[in-house]
Amino acid sequence: MAKKAVATLQKGEGRGFAKVIKMVKSPKTGAYVFQEDIVPNEKVKEYFAK
Questions:
Q1: pTM
Q2: What ranges do the domains of the chain cover?
């Protein structure tokens, strides 16, 4: 599935977006989980600031 998302981002219309991966702590178990999203390039810093 990741290959398809990355391949879509490499086409001409997807150049304005970035796939970001953030590590967050689960409130239920206390374990760390990875949260993946696709956001516009302008909003990447805002995404990590949350």
A1: 0.59
A2: 2-49
